Amino acid sequence: MNTKPMDPYEALGVKRTATDAEIKKAYRALAKKLHPDINPGDTAGEERFKAVSAAHTFLSDPEKRRRFDAGEIDASGAEMPPRDYYRNHAGTGQENRYQSEAEFDDLGDIFSRAFGSRGGGAGGGGAHGMKMRGADVQYHLEVSFLDSINGAKRRVTMPDGRSLEITIPAGIEDGKTLRLSGRGQPGFNGGPAGDALILIAVLPDLLFERDGTDILLDLPISIDEAVLGGSVAVPTTAGRVNLRVPPGSSSGRIMRLRGKGVAAKGRPAGDQLVRLKIVLPDIIDDDLKTAIEGWHKDHPHDARSGWKGQT
To answer: What is the sign of the dihedral through the CA atoms of 218, 224, 228 and 234?
Structure first.
């Protein structure tokens, strides 16, 4: 059963005055903590993860955020009643409160009043003969990070029960909307059907992050790989490749894999930026301690020399 979406600011734990950067930071922290791959079988955590993803997608749309802040739409994106709606009807008596002052027998009467027609027939030019476009339908689709980069096909069930096959274009960004022409609600009296609007929410990945057309990855390396260098297998969004780590590489060094970033249609492919991270053994044995002590004795080295925090 679908429940009413919670306030997107509350879902992310940020204030309404939060900047885009603060919202993104809060989302990434929560998404990594709640990711289903980290918490298998945690149904409540998975629902919280979905709520966080939906909130981030919602607030990443500047127009939706503006309209939500202004009280024009709710957290699901649905239109809110005009602010004076209830005030206009509050004095009509308890039994008639929130009802329209006019009475209509059916939809035909509504259209007749709205368009000034009393005949109602197609020959008379009444509302019953008007061609009207069908309504658009919206759908929130979560896609994996890799599918957003490489593209994919997904079959989804729309709110009205229809099944649609959706082509996810390679390189699509979080918060973008796909428009499927004519796949919305049918029109009236032969009018065109509305469109299906597919709002894309890209799920965070445990390894990769995206920065424009570049892909970011932290790569753990051992102390001997850092000192001596070597060839290391590195995951990319298209499979593993070998990366040559230069001898004497420090933590934080950025290695660039050209053309291994986002290859969106009509744009040159970005790069994958690999940030090295030296990881020491869980247990420092005597051999390692002896080697390091001997080296340090003969080769004193100040790692913080020239560091700004030294002064």
So the answer is: negative
